[in-house]
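Exercise 7. Given the encoded structure of a 141-residue chain, write a plausible sequence.
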């Protein structure tokens, strides 16, 4: 995907399409890519919001929490112990949940033109939270 396609694209959750040219991709890579795309699309979305005080604050928080999901997932993959891994995944889950919260606020306080993309990002945050919950559940056994 070239830069113009990235900046002009609507938020797409279908990561398989975005990395279909790669071979031997594993789950770890896909989730790293997915969290990266979530943070990137959050930034693009927030740039389009009207410049109000609340949008500035909510966008700042959404950008921070969405970026933290991917950063902590990378840290989890490089963890030195199982306890460290579980801690980082818990942080990923928390940040994904927080991201969904900020998108809910943005959706509720803006014009209808921003609702569609905001809902897609809110759903992605919720889906990522569920994925991290599943990882935690499977790791505890």
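Solution.
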């Amino acid at each position: 995907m070239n830069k113009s396609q990235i900046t002009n694209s609507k938020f797409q959750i279908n990561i398989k399409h975005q990395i279909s040219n790669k071979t031997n991709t594993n789950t770890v890579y896909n989730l790293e890519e997915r969290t990266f795309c979530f943070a990137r699309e959050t930034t693009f979305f927030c740039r389009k919001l009207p410049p109000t005080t609340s949008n500035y604050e909510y966008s700042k928080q959404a950008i921070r929490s969405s970026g933290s999901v991917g950063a902590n997932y990378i840290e989890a993959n490089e963890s030195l112990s199982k306890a460290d891994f579980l801690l980082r995944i818990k942080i990923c889950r928390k940040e994904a949940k927080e991201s969904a919260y900020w998108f809910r606020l943005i959706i509720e306080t803006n014009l209808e033109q921003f609702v569609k993309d905001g809902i897609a990002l809110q759903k992605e945050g919720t889906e990522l939270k569920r994925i991290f919950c599943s990882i935690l559940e499977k790791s505890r056994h």
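Remark. Residues 1-28 have pLDDT under 50 and may be disordered. Students should compare their own answers with the one above.
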